[in-house]
Specification:
254 residues, alpha/beta, TIM Barrel, 8 helices, binds zinc ion
């Protein structure tokens, strides 16, 4: 699997977002907790002009049907992209959480070797599960940060899902200085950073840091319904337009 993903799949953050192809790299179908079938999701993505669609199903057992789900999912994506994708590239991927801070992943070897794209995620914090109520904010920040670094260093992981997002959404804002350290490490390792409007809101400060370091971007909407496909791409365009307007005004007066 390792060499299937090309660096050209990702977009350098120091290029104009206006040139970014319509990519969607974070989508759930009803093979995990998304609302629609793979076929319906592909049809909506095509209608929206998406050029590359990456399915990123969850691997947490509580979010999938049964032990045989992955083989059915892989077969379905491979079959339907031959018959229904048209010009759109469709990629078989997974959103894989870390199990511990050593970087072990919640996925079988079959899943890792059959998938064409691995979006690594910090979800449940090791030792804490999904229930983060009462967790010390400083500890949450540290667990998220260490988990993100472990994902970046994992040879099977191509892109990092919503960095800082779980901590920011459920516990306490993830420090931008640590987000920047994650970006720096990802840049050094050639891994992509997902900017995700469901977690990075407003997106401008996150995009500015990514742009400063020229890290590779993966636009991911965390779409659980086909209507949400393409949102990350759209928000990146809008955010850059805002930044240009802002710098245009500064330019006039200085
Ligand atoms: Zn996630
Ligand atoms: Zn997701």
């Amino acid at each position: 699997m390792e060499n299937l993903v090309s660096q050209e799949w990702f977009y350098p953050a120091d290029r104009s977002m206006a040139q970014m192809p319509r990519w969607e790299y974070h989508v759930h179908s009803d093979f995990s907790d998304g609302a629609a079938s793979v076929s319906k999701t592909m049809a909506v993505a095509r209608a929206k002009g998406i050029q590359r669609l990456i399915f990123t199903e969850h691997t947490e057992p509580e979010l999938v049907a049964d032990a045989g789900w992955f083989a059915r999912y892989a077969r379905t994506v491979r079959d339907l992209r031959r018959s229904e994708a048209g010009d759109m590239a469709v990629v078989l991927g997974l959103e894989v959480p870390i199990l511990d801070l050593e970087g072990n992943l919640l996925a079988t070897e079959e899943m890792l070797s059959e998938s064409e794209f691995i979006l690594g995620a910090v979800h449940a914090y090791p030792g804490y599960g999904w229930n983060l109520a009462g967790i010390d904010p400083a500890l949450a920040i540290d667990l998220e940060f260490q988990g993100l670094l472990a994902l970046i260093d994992h040879p099977r992981v191509h892109a990092i899902a919503h960095p800082g997002g779980v901590c920011g959404k459920y516990v306490t804002p993830f420090p931008m200085s640590l987000f920047e350290q994650v970006v720096v490490r990802a840049k050094a390792r050639g891994k992509a950073i997902e900017l995700n409007p469901a977690y990075h809101h407003p997106m401008a400060p996150f995009l500015e840091i990514c742009r400063r370091h020229g890290v590779l971007l993966a636009p991911g909407s965390n779409a659980h319904h086909p209507d949400e496909i393409g949102l990350a791409w759209k928000v990146l365009q809008e955010t850059e337009a805002q930044l240009w307007r802002k710098s245009g005004i500064i330019g006039k007066f200085t």
